[in-house]
Amino acid sequence: MSSIFSGLNTAISGLATAQTAVSTTSHNISNAENSNFTRQRVNFETNQTIAIGNTTVGTGANVQSITRIHNEFIYTRYQQSSERVAYSTALESNLKEIASYFPDLEGVGLKNDLDNYFRSWANLSTDPSSVAQKSVLVSSAQNLVNNIRASYDKVTNIQASLNSEIGTSIDEVNKIIKDIAKLTGEISATETNGNNANDLRDHRDSLETTLTKLTGAEFVHGNESDTGGVVSLAEAQGLYSVIIGGVAVVSGNNYHPLKLDNKNSADGSYSIKYQNKDGSFIDMSQIINKGKIGALLELRGNKFDENGTIANGLIPDFKDNLNSFVNGVIVHTNSIYSESASNYMRSNPLKEAVNSDNAIEKLGVLAGNFNIIVYDKNGTETSKRVVSINENSTFGEIMDQLQKSYDDNGDGSLLNDFASQFKVYTSNDRLIIEAKNPDLGYKFGIEDNETQFAGQIGLNRFFDGKDASNISINKELVQKPHRISAHKEPLDGNNGIADSMFKLQTENLNFYSDTRGNYKDTVFGVYNDFVTDIAGKSEAISSRKETIEVQYKSIEEQLNNISKVSIDSELASLMKYQTAYSASGKVVSTIDKMIDTLLGLKQ
Q: In terms of CB atoms within 10 Å, which end of the chain has fewer, N or C?
């Protein structure tokens, strides 16, 4: 039978539920500016009724649960969109920086340096004996060389900084998965005891989002949703998982850190490893292709060759294309410069070439032929020796053609032929050609027919080095500009070399790169393609990033409308619960008066 005291208990339940609702609303309002907080809602349920005669009487309400207003589907879309923003942002910022080193505007950058360099050769061709013009040529060439190396070093420094950033980011990943595993254990323990772990789940969600931005991680769990609010069986059994590239790095409250390894790297670049239970390793560098780290790996490269050198990546490709351009300038410049008549030429190191080595593979020369032109002391051509190179030619066979004595000009005499006046030999891994008797005044030049022989091995070179990392001007010419040869034939006023150097900029030349193989283009054509490639990739990712950010903001707004705190809405709820609390208090006061009345009747 219902009593007046049961009515008091009913009113007290109203006070308790209203108080919990006020506390929850206060918690929401306090976290209104917390971007990682999910709005919470109190769910009420009716207490069991009491039978009185032929009817039943309610006994109030109690708090069934306090749930987060969380939609897992929308939140997953938000995480995925966050990953795409992080990926595109990392790509865009680095590509824009690289593009700034190679402006494609006239009058600035390496293009301007190239213009000045070729113009200096043109000016020298008008006055081939001018020491002043030769000094200007050295100055413009030095400026070109310095800026090429500076630009290459800047790109290399970006690559090195990306590697450091990869290391730092993996350390952050390991800390996050450790914290996630710990939180998963705490969530499980809290909810097993019948308490809510809403704030712990918010914390884990924020770590998940950060991890997604870094790696594009995926998660197997049953986060509470406004459509259900029930923890999944898998998570209830401790099977919550964090998966990166198909590999589970968190299972329940256990985690498996990623490892950084650069022991076999030629330049200290990190590879990312995951160790299996059997001790074997999975190379995660080639698996992680999303998020910030995925972008960093795409830029830096994620594969290593047998020598421990990065074998792919946007920046290595840019460096390869820059090296292709610079190597072409070096080789073709030196090929032309070797035409200048001289009585002594000395090559770069020949990579310890032996007679049996294939010349094309060892020296980088091409099939074809080149001519050695011999001049007497009056500058008159006396003979021409043709040296042929085919796909099977060995270094020894080329040396035989250079050293052999025979009648080059067919005049029946060997006295004015190449081998009679010049000796060819190797010393300290260098090819040397020098006059047997310099006093006779014989000189020679090397005319190339696309073998690039003199240019590749650096006979009578203008430029030293092989690529953008080490290009320089022949030190002797820097120290003594007057020794620069503007002539081809050894005659006063001859400008054959200077004129050919100026025309070099418009000729279709052979180039080689790892990404394109052998190809033909002009010097400016190769440079323009290189610059356009960088600018095009930078503009493309910027355009894509704009689209991604629009999608991200739309999903973020949708998520905020569901899960984030609205102060206006919470104030309205606060007033509602305050009124409910006051009303329940009024019921208590009324029942208290009823009890007083009852006690008065007894007296």
A: C
